[in-house]
Amino acid sequence: MLLKDKVVLITGGSRGIGAAIAREVARQGADVAINSHDDDEAAQAVLTDVEALGRRGIHVSGDVALPETAAAFTEAAVDAFGRVDVLVSNAGICPFHAFLDMPVETLKRTMEVNLHGAWFMTQAAANQMVKQGDGGAIVAISSISALVGGEFQTHYTPTKAGVHSLMQSCAIALGKHGIRCNSVLPGTILTDINKDDLADPEKRKYMEGRIPLGRLGQPEDIGGAVVFLASDMAAYVTGAALLVDGGAFVNLQ
Ligand code: NAD
Ligand code: RM4
């Protein structure tokens, strides 16, 4: 019960890593507000699980690329639960594409959802936390891709480095308000975001072979790191980044 009676907001909480985080924070005693975009049915299934764990949940649909989504999501959570203790900025996309012929729209959309979306949500949640006056925690889901490149991810990896950098700067900007800002850097986790990419057996075998712990990650592998950074156990941790990648990053040879 590391998050007993806390209110946790999660963007992109309808599936994959965000849905697993929603279930884990509920298991740890939190009420949960999830955002997602065009994915109401999956979001409802997550809420059913949250309620089965004895906690309250709400879902607010909206595109995080738009600043008004951040305001509406925060407001809805405050209406339902009275406050915001934790934001998990998780929503993201990775439309794998070659560099030389990348459509400008693919680049722009990836930047707007992943980086601007995290920025807008962090600002909206932080303003609410400052208003409450008793601190809070923000955890952004960055990636191992903040640290290393990807041939078909030239639009995506800069957003993940940017999200990590956002947490570093916000740790400074918000420290005086008792708001801690950290990022989690998942390795390769099996979700819809990479289902097509990993459908290629050669690519999948190569990715598995890079991981000292011997397997690709599951969404459930990320929840523990998020709960730790969101909880009072991490009371003196801010501006930090926690890799959760089965050892992939350090595996040079
Ligand atoms: P996913 O495709 O399974 O889930 C993405 C979630 O984000 C869904 O709930 C979807 O509704 C939501 N979403 C997408 N676009 C949105 C938008 N414009 N507005 C609001 N919500 C939106 O993907 P995932 O693998 O669970 O990815 C979640 C996060 O984890 C992403 O930020 C991704 O970059 C990051 N990440 C994933 C991996 C991985 O290997 N799966 C590794 C490192 C980091
Ligand atoms: C992650 C990392 C994974 C990839 C996903 C889409 O940040 O790069 O390898 O599968 O993004």
Q: What does the secondary structure layout of this molecule look like, with pairings?
A:
Elements: E1 7-10, H1 16-27, E2 31-36, H2 40-52, E3 57-61, H3 67-81, E4 86-89, H4 104-132, E5 136-141, H5 157-175, E6 179-186, H6 201-209, H7 220-230, E7 241-244
Parallel strand pairs: 1-2, 1-4, 2-3, 4-5, 5-6, 6-7
Helix pairs in contact: 1-2, 1-7, 3-4, 4-5
Bound molecules: nicotinamide-adenine-dinucleotide and beta-L-rhamnopyranose.
How would you sum up this structure, described in words?
Helix content is 43%, strand content 15%. The protein is α/β, with parallel strands linked by helices and 253 residues long. The protein has one domain: Rossmann fold (3-Layer(aba) Sandwich). It has a 7-stranded parallel sheet, with helices on both faces. α3 packs parallel to α4. Residues 94, 143-145, 150, 153, 160, 188, 193-194, 197 line the site of beta-L-rhamnopyranose.
Structurally, the number of domains stands at: 1
CATH topology group: Rossmann fold
Outline: globular
Task: Bin the strand percentage.
Answer: 5-15%
Radius of gyration: 17 Å
Bound molecules: nicotinamide-adenine-dinucleotide, beta-L-rhamnopyranose
Mean pLDDT: 98
Approximately how much helix is present in the residues?
Answer: 40-55%
The CATH homologous superfamily name equals NAD(P)-binding Rossmann-like Domain
